[in-house]
Amino acid sequence: MRKITKIDTSIPAIRKRKKVAAYARVSKNTERTMHSMSAQISYYNDLIQKNPEWEFAGVYADDAITGTVAEKRSEFQRMISDCEAGKIDIVITKSVSRFARNTVDLLETVRHLKDLGIEVRFEKEHINTLTADGELMLTILASYAQEEVETMSQNIKWTIRNHFKNGQLSGCCSFLGYKWDDSQKKLIVVPEEAETVRRIFNMYLSGSSLKQIERTLKDEGIAGVRGGRWQKTTISQVLQNITYTGNLLLQKTFSQDPITKKLRWNNGELPQYYSEDTHEAIIDMETFQAVQDRLEHMREVLNSECYELRPFSRKLECSECGGHYARGRTKKDNGNVFYYWKCWKRKQYGGKGCKGRQISEIKLMAYSCDVLGWDTFDGDKFREIVEKIIVREDGLEFFLYDGTRKEIADVKRNHYSGKKKDKSQ
Questions:
Q1: What is the pLDDT of residues 100-147, one digit of tens each?
Q2: Nearest alpha-carbon partner for 128 in 315, 136, 378
Q3: CATH number, domain 178-301
Q4: Residue 98 carries which DSSP code?
């Protein structure tokens, strides 16, 4: 009998292509680095699309942004979001320092992606994060990258402080009234902005408050510092900036941590240097000093008379944003005036500024009497005893100078006249 053997056909399995993306970053916005960025993007486009086993998932590029703080890199954050959404299987980057210079950020991100099954490849160091020795090598190299940042920061600080000792600026961001001329290495007056500066000084000397100046500039559509909107704090900074007199007070601020780069006011931690006649003045010294005298006088008034009239000034703290509360008043239909306290951010900008709640002055006085065991509210004694009150949505938290902390729930109560109601009546 004839032998017949059946041959089954099999369809070869098609390997699923990996979705591959690249991350690129340059830290300075110059023509050279712009070319570098363009070259990186072009290189990764070709590299990924020429590999038949890869599917192009995009190139994420941050331009002129520091690598020490991940939150400031929008494209980096977008890439991580796409990884979490399953749009990427492999991330390719040039080197550890391009991906991150902060060891903590680097390892946290790599481990997070590893948990998602996503591989990160560092071309220069030949590291693959999904291999056994990948994370060990990465930890060592990331430490070197962070140390490089710290060393570079120390060198830059040394250069800047030596310039300060010689009464020179080593570089400057432009601010209202001036722009920095890099070729002349000095501040140059911007005529239109200088007029705004002179007007602010003249308005303040004429008796206008910071709030009135703010409203006037806003109403007239005059651009604020760096194009931002005017606030009382920015106007106060303008009025106290001695740079407008043609002189420089150097090292007013300093950066303590090269990773966060947060600036701190120099309150004696480092020496300051006063350099005279370094650039063209916008305000003469006599006008500047007159403004400082009025500012000091207003501080004295705030610290004396104002507090006698308003016991809760600078005592109320918002639990939502940490800001202080400001006093307001409303006239009711019957002609009576109603006083209330509201977080200054909400008072100025509404719900977008802060969601901290408003509380009436009558309630504050009543709650203070309840906590302190008084029959009648005494503003002077209150300021001596109470350090601060945190206003929460559900009540108040009192902090006394003797270290005591007391809480009270916010409940509906009858109108308060300043004295507790006699329960025996």
A1: 766 667 778 888 898 899 999 988 888 888 876 776 766 666 565 556
A2: 136
A3: 3.90.1750.20
A4: H
Does domain 18-147 correspond to CATH entry 3.40.50.1390?
yes
Question: Helix or strand or coil: residue 26?
Answer: strand
CB-based contact 150:103 (threshold 8 Å): no
Decide: 86 and 57 in contact? Cβ < 8 Å. Answer: no
- For residue 60, give the 3-state DSSP assignment: strand
Residue 64, pLDDT > 60, answer no
Distance between CA atoms of 358 and 338, rounded to whole angstroms? Answer: 12
Compute the distance between CA of residue 387 and CA of residue 320 in angstroms, rounded to an integer: 19
Q: Are 48 and 90 in contact (CB under 8 A)?
A: no
Position 256: which residue type? Q
For 78-113, b/e burial (b = at least 16 CB within 10 A) is ebbebbeeeebbbbbbbebbbbbbbbebbeebbeeb
| Residue 231 near residue 40 (C-beta atoms within 8 A) | no
Closest CA to 66 of 76, 58, 53, 78: 76
SS3 237: helix
Q: What is the pTM of this model?
A: 0.41
Half-sphere exposure of 359 (CA within 13 A, CB side): 30
Instruction: For the chain, report the end-to-end CA distance as a whole number of angstroms.
Output: 121
Type of residue at 410: D
For the chain, the domains span 18-147, 178-301, 309-409
Q: Where do the DSSP E strands lie in 119-257?
A: 119-122, 127-128, 178-181, 186-189, 248-250, 253-255
Note whether 272 and 303 are within 8 A (CB).
no
* pLDDT single digits (tens) 208-228: 888 889 889 988 888 877 777
